[in-house]
Please model this.
Amino acid sequence: MTETDIAAHTVGRRSAGSPAAARGDRGFFGRQRYFLFFMAVPAVIYVIIVGVWPLAQGAWYSFFDYNLQKPKRTHFVGLDNYVNAFADSTTRQAIVNTFEFTIVGVAVQLVLGLLIALMLWRDDRFNRTILAFLLIPATITPLVVGLIFKGLLGPDYGFIGYYLAEWGLGPKGGLLADGGTALWVLIVVDCWEWTPLMALILLAGLKSLPTDVLEAARADGATVLQRFFWVILPLMLPSVFLALILRTMDAFRVFDTPFVTTGGGPGDATQTMMLIAVKQGLQFFNVGYASALGNIAILFIAIMAAILIFAVRRADARINGK
Model:
């Protein structure tokens, strides 16, 4: 290296470490932070307007006797709307129905989805074709699914309901008109529609498993069941948790299918919390009571999510020996 190169290198180092260079670096990173901040502002504003503000407004309305037919007679009632919700027999039955619908439906979807994912685990053309057809139910809106099954199960003209009535295999009025079968039919309809989505999430988890671990378990002589329970299932806990959380939150807010198939009947057999909340808010214009029902549903969803998080973390800690 010549003396000229050494001098240039020394000057470059001094200039790079000079206060002016430091201020230039800080200026660049400062501009970058401002750019990222202003890029995030529209998304934050959107979330506040669409998500946070309606929730806060619903929480505020729930403490008032607020009816859109008498907007000038609004007055503060405290927790009366919540007390009346739990005191009402129809609402209590709706809470029981919603929990039964959610727990049974999501459990069945998890088991069936896992079985389907295991069958489609091998990546070949046949399985990809089957998966494409399998996802068709999940692309149909719940409102349309409810109308389809209402038509199929009708005892007078339904393709399924007519033959069930003719052969004496169901209630005379149809499965959806009987208090003992209506809710279970809705659970079956929900499983038909959303099991493919559960299978898709679990299949993605299966395909992300490390192959070296599975091959090592196979080389050690582990049976199929041993590999499933001691290797595959523990590694799939994040995917299982994601599937359970998504489906639990969605199932607990069920409204479309009961609304178009049974309307909450017969009696209160298929009433759900969201169905009552929508009726109170949009049919009777009782916004305060409807807001209280919505907040109760959000609280129940948060409790179930916390239980799932605790269960998954405890299982993960037990598996990893923490």
